[in-house]
Amino acid sequence: MHQITFYLDFVSPYAWLAFDALPRSLEGLSHEVNYRPVLLGALLQQHGNPGPAGVPPKRDWTYRHASWLGHAQGCGLDMPARHPFNPLPLLRLALACSDDGHINRFVAGTVLRHVWLGGGDPLEPARLAALQEALQAQLRPDPDGSGARAKALLRANTDEAIARGVFGVPSYAVGDRLFWGLDGLPMLRASLQGDAWFDGPAWDAAPRVPSGLPGAAS
Question: Under a CB-based contact definition with an 8 Å cutoff, are residues 25 and 185 in contact?
């Protein structure tokens, strides 16, 4: 059975789209998916990347594209009342349902739908309270009410993702291979199916291509 780690942050529309598409993409393959929430902002900061929202024309395109993909996939996608937003409350709530940094598909899907269906404000207090109620049966005991365990799990997940080379979400790790993005799902499937391309030189050759950017190390 293939073990897949799915790195996600609920602030990413493509995390929702990939979450919806993943079962179809892996249909017929023996696999187990571990959903691991991470803080996308920390990943972007690590690599000096402002993200799509930091480039106004790209922001506009990203929102149009994601909305269309939700329509095309049939899962729907409504831009929330404001975006980007601070995802920390959602990440910590999801990880309050975890003992080891992974969350199950029910928790991941419940939070993703909270954000990406309906067009509401994900952080509006009444909606957050309703989300917590929906996850009540999944929550782990928090004796002092501080949420310290969930905070520590998020830090550990994000640090582990950075160490593994994760630079964005959604990303999927299988062994020492990392795949990124909704459009990386066909490549992930091909790898799991044993496509001979992955036994050739192309995968390992990619990092050795010299950069033509000014100031880049040769």
Answer: yes
Range 2-208 classified under CATH 3.40.30.10: yes
Residues 42 and 155: their CA atoms lie apart, in Å, by 10
Residues with Cβ within 8 Å of residue 12, at least 6 apart in sequence? 40, 169, 170
Instruction: Read off the pLDDT of residues 90-125 as tens digits, 9 standing for 90 and up.
Output: 999 999 999 999 999 999 999 999 999 999 999 999
**Strands 171-174 vs 2-8: parallel, antiparallel or unpaired:** antiparallel
**How many other CB atoms sit within 10 Å of the CB of residue 156?**
15
Q: How far apart are the first and last CA of the chain?
A: 41
Cα three-residue angle 199-188-194, rounded to 5 degrees: 35
9: left (phi over 0), alpha (psi -120 to 50) or beta: beta
> Beta partners for 6?
35, 172
pLDDT digits (tens, 9 = 90+) for 155-197: 999 999 999 999 999 999 999 999 999 999 999 999 999 999 9
User: Hey, where are the domains in the chain?
Assistant: 2-208
Residue that has been written with the tokens 């999927």 in this structure:
172
